[in-house]
Protein 1
Amino acid sequence: MTDLVELTMAEALEGLAKKEFTSVELTQAHLDEMAKARDLNAYVIETPELALERAKRSDNRRSKGEKLGLMEGIPVGMKDLYCTKGVRTTACSHILDGFVPPYESTVSLNLENQGSVMLGKTNMDEFAMGTANLTSYYGAVRNPYKDKTNPNKFLIPGGSSGGSAAAVAAGLCMCATGSDTGGSIRTPASFCGIVGMKPTYGRCSRYGMIAFASSLDQAGTMTRTVRDTAIMLESMAGYDPKDSTVVNRPVPCYQKALTGDIKGLKIGIPREYNPDKGLNSDVRHVWEQTAEKLRQAGAEIVDINLPSTQYALPTYYLIAPAEASSNLARYDGVKYGLRVDGKSLDEMYTNTRTAGFGKEVKRRIMIGTCVLLEGYYETCYLKAQKVRRLLCKEFDDAYKKVDVILAPAAPETAFGKDDDSTKDPLKMQLYDVFTVPSSLAGLPAISVPAGYSETTGLPIGLQVIGNKFCEETILRVAGVIESVSGMSIRPLRVGGK
Amino acid sequence: MSYIIKGETGDWEIVVGLEVHCEVISKAKLFSGAPTAFGAEANTQVSFVDAGFPGMLPVINHECVEQAIKTGMGLNATVNKKSIFARKNYYYADLPNGYQISQSDKPIISDGYIDVDLENGETRRIGIERLHLEQDAGKLMHDQHPSKSFVDLNRAGVALMEIVSRPDIRSPEEAGAYLRELRSIVRYIGSCDGNMDEGSMRCDANVSVRHPGDPLGTRAEIKNVNSIRFVMQAIEYEAKRQVELLEEGGKVVQETRKFDSVKGITKTMRSKETAVDYRYFYDPDLIPLRLSDETIEKCRKEMPELPSAKKNRFVKDFGLPAYDAGQLVAEKEIAEYFEAAAKGHDAKKVANYIMGDLFATLNKLGKSIKESPVSPENLGRMVDLINDGTISSRIAKDVFQFMVDEGKSPDQIVEEKGLKQVTDTSAIEKIIDDVINENPDKVAEYRSGKDKLLGWFVGQTMKASKGKANPGMLNDLLKKKLAG
């Protein structure tokens, strides 16, 4: 029998359908792999009993000939940001210690309803605030890839969905949920050599997803192939009356978009994403090479301008913390999670929040609180909202000329946990430079592996950004990139072979 | 006559604006499906949304929106087709999210007015700046445990309409009249029960003083006053305090004050320096609230007749004096009672009986109009009996009391007690003859010029008729007979 953890989700679905193996076997294989790779710290909670029980139920449905879901029997990792009924959910923050939700998020419920089997909760930056998965209360996640020049170096997986990315890359699940506020799916996908997709804002429900910045947070997929992304997105997206910002429009069968045909498609290359400084030359090389391959496949490459790109980062770092400062006010020690007592209510708040939040979260709460204060609101927050509208308009104009935009997902490849840059929050922010603009505009974007760094051998992801609700177009382009990249889609065998 | 405070430096005028919070009558809360029953056991009317659980999202309850639209219509205001919810951020244990969802610069209702009647017959128009929807907070209980405070979230998330008047109010009386009118409007619409003692209607008063013609003075805000009488007292006290302060050369500071109803004074709660910066921003969990023409039209169709329109109709159709009509429409139930009683009867007389005997009786019994022992039909019928001469208005007093005590119809009472008025000339003449025959000396006195004795004769004959003689006929016949 094939090694089950090496299969793609599409292959596994076929194998299950042909009864080559059962969901219990598939699930057990992944649980075994998880046990072998605990040093990655990809999961903060493993739920083997629950997983095997669900796998068994899936096998029963199949043997009884009942209606099967799109992801029937598939083991998945669940980012700890999604509330899961009866399973501890903390967004990897100390302040939510011991919090067991009495409800299920819509995204995880949709996935369960499509027959998938949750293996556990994956590690992440605390409240999804981070680009390297270094802010988790449960410790850093290790990227399963190794730098060929320094194999012992502890590489970060990117963040905030670092646990999910590492787990998918290492075969610790067939796919995982991520969430993307300013690049939290695309950056780790790029660093871990997997496919990560942030759909259009409003495509997936945010109900039961622990909020970071509500106007930006969007659930998304992390898989090893573009086809798997299509299957997973179809499974989790859709209207939900419990979220006022989700859009009521039908969810298409995304797999049908994977035609491999991009003839005549216009692909925009934004000049502003190619700065003289701050873009790794291997990344630039892969980008240029891929554009050329796409041209050869029949696409038209068009140079475009997105002049306000340079303002995207400061804009993001005003809006996201502002919303976060308010969203995180509910963690006050009164109702659930951590409480550190004090002599007065105010003291209890202070003690609880001082002990409960990590440094990066506190930093963003303070910035966010500040920019909403009288006097700063107009000069910071409102101005940022104006720039945000400007960025949206520039994208709108661009999509009058092109069908999709091709850009790097991150300016670098995965870096070391103890590199100097990780000590400087401003430097860390720069890793979001290519992902933040499309987040602000609410656009769908996918990061797909496109090559390796010649220097380090580490994977490089490219981003295909589409117009609103054009998920099918970017999946089509990503599918072509996947096939012309010549990269392996098999998981790395960490701790194994 | 305007309300003026005479000071040493001249006349002072007071300027008042009121912010009234009305708890919306709705089956569910503003942004969650939790029920809103009053007086339920603590923390039984709470959803995860109300309790601020992670990942929970607000979803607007359209029933509350429609209540706000109707109330806006009742305030002669503009219904804004697009309004936006914003977060008002502050920490308190009764506020589970750490922010209240409210509306800031884009409220659902703006620019309205209501006309209020004053005792001197004057009508004043008070502008309404806005009405916006927001969430109520929970309740802290400090008396349940020696060292702990408990939180009850039943009220958390219940919809409130905050109605902000323009600073058009110039006297405590106007403030009282405004609040009564407002309460009457929301009760008519059914958007709020208006019970200030239960906290479902609460009032903050912004008070400042100035010499007439001067620009607005610095205002103080008196928070959470819980009866109309207290609001009037608080304004009166606060205005006097400010005048005294200013005349002594002091300055009014912009601050929040509270009213001590026992001492009848206002006290500093917090000054502007320590005021909270609420960091308002549009709630990213909600999309702008857009109202369709259909929704607005539906609300318009469901609008009941409002007190002011009803009052005008009572004046026009029933010929009531404006003041009486105003009294009758103040409460929907009274107006309904009046209409039921007046239907097909002498409306003016019915109105008088309601405002006189009926109100006095209800007051004495401590009952509401809905619990009235006299049905509107019986009251109307009694007026008929007076008008057709079956009973005299004097006997009517007794009939009314019998109706209160026994709940029977006036016809039955008149029949059973034999209270029918005597209108038979010969019967009355016979009574008169008897009295005259029994009192020859008094007759002689009368005839010799002692006119005042007529009253005595009336009394005697009426007594002899057991009060049933028609007073007019009795008078005429008596005079004729006495004249000889």
Protein 2
Amino acid sequence: MLKNERWLVGLHILSAFFALFWGALMGPFQTFHRSPAFVAAFPNSTIPIFSYYYQALTAHGVLNALFFTTMFITGISYYVAWRSFDRPLVGIPLAWVAYVLELVGLIAIFVVLLNDPQRSAVLFTFYPPLVAPPLFYIGLVLLVVGSWLGLLVVFLTYSAWRKENKTARIPLAPFGVMANYIMYFLASLGVAVEVLVLLLPASLGLIQNTDPQLSRALFWFFGHPVVYFWLIPAYVSWYTMLPMQSGAKRVFSEPLAKVAFLMLMIFSVPTGIHHMFADPGISSTWKAIHTVFTLMVAVPSFMTAFNIGATLEIAGRNRGGKGLFGWMFTQKWSDPVVAAQLMGMLQFITGGITGLINASAQINTVVHNTSWVPAHFHQTVGGAVALTYIGILYWILPMIRGRALYSKKMALAQVYTWGFGMTMFGHTLGEAGLAGVPRRTLSGLSPYLSEAATYWLNANAISGVILLVSVILLYANIVLTLFASKEPVTEGGYTVTKGDPTTPAILERWGLWIGVAVFLAFLVWTIPFIDAINLTEGFQILRYSPAGPAPLK
Amino acid sequence: MTLDKYERVWLTAVGGLIGSFMAALMVAYLIFDIRLPTFEARVDPANLSSTMFANLGVKKRAENAYDVVMLAKMWVFDAGKDGGSAGAPPVIRIPRGSRVTFYVTSLDITHGVYVEDHSINLEIVPGQIARQSIPFNRPGEFRIICNQYCGAAHQGMYGTIVVE
């Protein structure tokens, strides 16, 4: 193994899981404090480490959804570029700078959250006029700049590979990684403008006012595509790593997988207004238009469901499965790497369906900002994405460390407790949302809960116990694998270095597809932005801290 | 590149499904006129005295048609004298069968308005007026809940609508 690449991949993935540890650990305690029964039984208990509820919630969102995902994706993208292009990475120094930036960003977030719990509790959407201390935004900027440098390393490596392979098709895995990065870069421009032009100066006191509606528009230009940024690496694993891990050898249809990646790249950005269906400053016409694109972006996921389903059927039949459903039972349910991804897919069925419900403009009114929404995204990002990343960890960590996973049984117990716990979490929190429970609320203290709401929140805390067990199993196994595992592993893993030659060449004309993506983004975002920008009446809103109703001086 | 037979069937079904969802949403939007909140007007929270929010409360516009003009702030809804004593969660009384139009804005940061068992759900973004109109046909008490995180005491921000 190449030394730099091995360290880069290993450190990124371990740092990502370090962030996830503190973030994920908060989750179960949040379910406890949302439960009226728990709060009545233990009125004086606090959450460990990030002891203030909204501080813990901010840590949970920022560490899990921003740092865990981004650092993991940077690492796994390096791995894919290195192994699939079958050459050393180009720009190793850049890659190290990227790592250091992301790591310093992570440390900054810990410092600000621990030092200033009240003021930094702005949650991971950091909507103004709430303004956190500058270090909060600086941490995020370092993370995003680091991820941009990671992107650059992948594209430099691609361009070196292209010079050596003029006519070859791009292997599927780096194709997905590149489509992901292009989409992410376009989307991240929105949040970059929001943070650098509006929020960081407001936090530093350089400007006294904010414009919440404009900020929300800029944030959601980024905020929806970013969930696909987290999801696409999971798809890359399902399309290109799972076929080998499960015994199917290759994906059912590689060209269609590439079409799915391109569709995700193109249709992710023109969808963000569906997060602002209830906003007063966005016209209902543009809400309707974004609804159409949001439904469009479900199509590549349906294509993926067929393609992966067919691939798994081949795997199941190779392993002796017979009949219409027999192949489902002959999957490697007792291999943690495969089982984690299969459990993730099962979560994605409910996550996807609830997503379609959220996207349906008028129906969204019933669920918007209720706890139904976190129920939904804990099936997608907390279920499908996190479980797939965990599956990848169980597969890649032994290769990088050179030692076998410490305990397969522990890993299996972890996968199934996570899968079951997250399913129960989703169901109970979703029901609570339909009973009127708002999201991001310390509901255990709320005076307005109905009987049904109370029941489901108490049930939700039980799922928290199961998930806490899962978190402990996961990290015990990681630490033991790193330091106590004796059994050596010889190098193996990812080997597909050739793209399917029957793939139509037009799918690989990046310039064309970037053009389409940028054009669509302009088409459906220009007017909402013009509506949101108002130089005479906008930018009038004072800055506030979550701690109290007096504006910041 | 060839398309598998079953894959073609699947993709056609998916196209039909997504297409019918889009059609249903568009019919609801264009024919039944079920629309999401749209751009109403800007307002400066520092100068509410010259706006409709100078006069908070329940206003009768016509037979069975009411406006509720409300201010959201950390951490109460303010519906003026019609909501009961100042600083306490407001109780708003509405006759059964009326259509109520809510006009809400924020004095400070972003809040939310959600009414139990009714189709109203608004982000209350400072600087903007949020408006939504809904019928109240069933008698009972329904909670108005702030469903957007608004700081330290967000969990206690609510009100009540009594449909008589």
